[in-house]
Predict the 3D structure of the following.
Amino acid sequence: MSADLLNIEDQLSEEERLIRDTVRAFTADKVQPHIAEWFEAGTMPREIIPELGKLGLLGMHLTGYGCAGLGPVAYGVACRELEACDSGLRSAASVQGSLAMYPIWKYGSDSQKDEWLPRMATGEAIGCFGLTEPDHGSDPAGMRTAARRDGSDWVLSGSKMWITNGSVADIAVVWASTDDGIRGFLVPRGAPGFTTRDIHQKMSLRASITSELVFDDVRLPADAILPGVTGLKGPLSCLTEARFGILWGVTGAARSCLESAVEYARTREQFGKPIGAFQLTQGKLAWMASSLYQAQLLALHLGRLKESGGLSPVQVSIGKMSNVRTAIDIAREARTILGASGVTLEYPPIRHANNLEAVLTYEGTEEIHTLAVGQALTGISAYR
Ligand SMILES: Cc1cc2nc3c(=O)[nH]c(=O)nc-3n(C[C@H](O)[C@H](O)[C@H](O)COP(=O)(O)OP(=O)(O)OC[C@H]3O[C@@H](n4cnc5c(N)ncnc54)[C@H](O)[C@@H]3O)c2cc1C
């Protein structure tokens, strides 16, 4: 563990520390030994998701239906420890809990909740979240995927792109335009006309499955629609939940990079002494550590705010844009300290650095969050 020079961990409750230690032990035992291999192979075994379920990490911030009902900081700490291992692992938990379970929990009917949430909490059923389309990423309001009424049924057509866990999901939460505005639909795997295709050759988040979803006149029953929300606020509210996990998670990736760099600096010798004895190396480490502490404090502050009454989307934007950028800077600096070893998968910094490129872009790009903060400061929207 890297030195916690500001004693930030002391601010966690006993329960939060227990979650930290449990998740850390799990990743050390079950994931860390294999992660470089999975990253290289471009896969994440599906079996990991039920393992996360056994630990109570899936939908852990939700109540009822077998969910742990834990507070925001506990959820954040779990995301942090998962992402200290790999952003792909944290993404799996985030997508399941915040993007697939949360909309069912918040906007679903009782029968939708009863059918899906208990099985999703254990990881027996996997969910995905389909908002982005090939031609509509940052601007989902223009989505082409549409659902039209046919008698009491719905008929869904269109496609979604870049969908985490798309091809392994048992249930897809799909956002589509209707005559009433944007609505969410639950589309089970195997529905006639629903196909998936994995996206290959990613250089980031390789230990995570990313897919395209195609809907070719998929007929859905009337009760496939999420009854509780209409409009873009539905998917955006899910993203606000998930982004909160990201702003915590990336501090784990950054911490892992710092630890790796400190360890390397203490043991690697050049010019007759450890490279950690050179002032340039110490300067890098000192700046990495102080940037990490600032990111950790921001995450903790936002977590306690969320606990005491909720966070506004712009507060989450500040956390996401700032902490992802900090984590990227730390990962790149760590990589330099490792020299040539820093470009191999034997050490984590290059894997984290590459992963963080996707994290910078997904769930609202850095630019879009910057514009949200700019709008909050000036009262002027610069989106269009
Ligand atoms: C690995 C991975 C997993 C993902 N998982 C999911 C998932 O599970 N579900 C899902 O729905 N989506 C997912 N996404 C998609 C992700 O959310 C989108 O990639 C993201 O919203 C950006 O959309 P885009 O890629 O189409 O970029 P674009 O929107 O085309 O943006 C391209 C560039 O233009 C900039 N830009 C756009 N508009 C403006 C503006 N008004 N002002 C200034 N700059 C602007 C952007 O910031 C960016 O730099 C995933 C993406 C990746 C890479």
Remarks:
- The first strand starts at residue 127 and ends at 130.
- The mean pLDDT is 97.
- Residues 76 and 235 are 20 Å apart (CA to CA).
